[in-house]
Design a protein that fits this description.
Layout: E1 9-18, E2 24-32, E3 37-41, H1 70-84, H2 92-103, H3 113-130, H4 135-140, E4 146-147, E5 149-156, E6 169-173, H5 180-200, H6 220-233, E7 243-247, E8 254-255, E9 258-261, E10 266-268, H7 270-283, E11 286-290, H8 298-308, E12 313-316, H9 324-333, E13 338-341, H10 343-346, H11 349-361, E14 365-369, H12 379-386, E15 390-393, H13 400-416, E16 421-422
Parallel strand pairs: 4-16, 5-15, 7-11, 11-12, 12-13, 13-14, 14-15
Antiparallel strand pairs: 1-2, 2-3, 5-6, 6-7, 8-9, 9-10
Helix pairs in contact: 1-2, 1-3, 2-3, 5-6, 7-8, 12-13
The structure holds 2-phosphoglycolic acid and zinc ion.
2-phosphoglycolic acid is lined by residues 45-48, 168, 247, 249, 317, 369, 371-372.
Length: 428
């Protein structure tokens, strides 16, 4: 029998809610003895990495087109509640270890990473409330103070849009700002300027899953030209004020050793693709390339890092899937020099923190990230400050599930007041 304390977990209640794409996802409320409630929900990817933790779906074609999460919800309300009930919510490491052991599989496929993560995050939120602490300070301690540079995805392609662009994300990085709010303003002005420019070229300004425009363009250089022009028209200097980041999501068009860029009508080997990136980097103010090579093309990643690692950030998303073992492999093999952090790729808060910690100790840049299917939960905004990641990727300044994170960072910068500082990003 557990000794009941003020922060003991007395109830865990999960439910299925809708994500931004209109598909079910898991939300959970964790209630403590003193009445504190932590609520968390989990996002969902479209271009998911092969090595991500398992997202449990019911696969019942008669309901939600197979995408229901009733089983994951049930796992929380029964098995997980049974084992966590009575434990102190402040014991995050212990709770996450219990969750991992209860699942017992390598990729969290018995209970579902969506079930585990929702509980893990909700427990941490409830604990912060119970201690009456700012969430980022509860997780990050007194040193949590760095507001991230937003990497704003203003043109969507790949799996996130209905156009022919091979690359998934074209982001702007308004690095020359004095504070987060200013960076957000710069990025938003460029977004609206781009919109006007696209309209004047008779191109669609409907948006994709992450709020960026999804014009009917298939040419990558033409897309980059539009962005450079929008930066200039908004009154900023490309490179000096604002740079461009790409998420190629190359695993999506890799097959049997070749990269098939159908929009560009090119089939390239790893080395040819690297030459293409070098060409883009000399012609455009490129800050970073994410998933430039496929998730298991380690040889390609090493060559890419040799070729461009001194100049730009090479970000592993599908490559690392927030998994400390894969990150270790990348560090040893000198593959990539930065990592995207998505808690739902790994499935618990503690494991996310451990991966960020190793990355930072190893000189890798860290980027906290949303998923293309999101909810109104703003925890990644808080985590970016908690862990001083320096960067956040949370879409265009459009669609409320994206703006919820930006708005939370505005409030957080205000609350931290003189303790806040904006990440100074030297390129590499
Ligand atoms: P996803 O895309 O959430 O669809 O995986 C985001 C990304 O690749 O960074
Ligand atoms: Zn990515």
């Amino acid at each position: 029998m557990q000794h009941i304390q003020s922060d003991s977990i007395i109830n865990i209640k999960a439910r299925s809610i809708l994500d931004s794409r209109g598909f079910p996802t898991v939300e959970v409320d964790v209630t403590l003895q003193d009445g504190s409630i932590g609520r968390a929900s989990v996002p969902s990817g479209a271009s998911t990495g092969e090595h991500e933790a398992y997202e449990m779906r019911d696969n019942n074609a008669k309901k939600w087109l197979g995408k229901g999460v009733e089983e994951a919800v049930n796992n929380i309300n029964v098995d997980i509640y049974d084992i966590l009930g009575g434990l102190s919510a402040s014991e995050q490491l212990k709770i996450d270890a219990i969750l991992k052991n209860l699942d017992g599989t390598k990729n969290k496929s018995r209970l579902g990473a969506n079930a585990l993560l929702a509980v893990s995050l909700a427990v941490s939120k409830a604990a912060a409330k119970s201690k009456n602490m700012e969430y980022c300070r509860y997780v990050g301690g007194v040193q949590a103070h760095v507001l991230p540079v937003p990497m704003m995805n203003i043109i969507n392609g790949g799996a996130h849009a209905d156009n022919k662009l091979d690359f998934q994300e074209f982001m702007i990085v308004p690095h020359k700002a004095n504070c987060f709010q200013e960076a957000l303003r710069m990025g938003t002005e460029i977004y609206h300027t781009l919109k006007a420019n696209l309209i004047s070229h008779n191109l669609s300004v409907n948006v994709g899953d992450e709020g960026g425009f999804a014009p009917d363009i298939s040419n990558i250089k033409k897309t980059l030209d539009f962005i450079v022009q929008a930066i200039k028209d908004a009154g900023y200097l490309p490179n000096d004020d604002v740079m461009i980041a790409l998420d190629v999501a190359a695993s999506e068009f890799y097959k049997d050793g070749c990269y098939y860029l159908s929009g560009e009508q090119k089939t390239l080997t790893s080395n040819q693709l690297i030459s293409y990136y070098q060409e883009l980097c000399s012609a455009y103010p490129i800050f970073s390339i994410e998933d430039g090579m496929a998730e298991d093309d380690w040889q390609g990643w090493q060559s890419l890092t040799q070729a461009l690692g001194e100049k730009i950030k090479l970000v592993g998303d599908d490559l690392f899937v927030t998994n400390i073992e894969r990150l270790k492999q990348g560090i040893i093999q000198k593959a990539a020099n930065a990592i995207l952090i998505k808690p739902n790729q790994i499935g618990t808060l503690s494991e996310t923190l451990q991966t960020v910690n190793l990355a930072q100790r190893s000189g890798f840049n860290t980027i906290m990230s949303h998923r293309s299917g999101e909810t109104e939960d703003t925890i990644i905004a808080d985590l970016s400050v908690a862990l001083n990641t320096g960067f956040i990727k949370t879409g265009a300044p459009c669609r409320s599930e994206r703006n919820a994170k930006y708005n939370e960072l505005i409030r957080l910068e205000e609350r931290l007041a003189e303790n806040a500082s904006f990440f100074v990003c030297k390129n590499t």
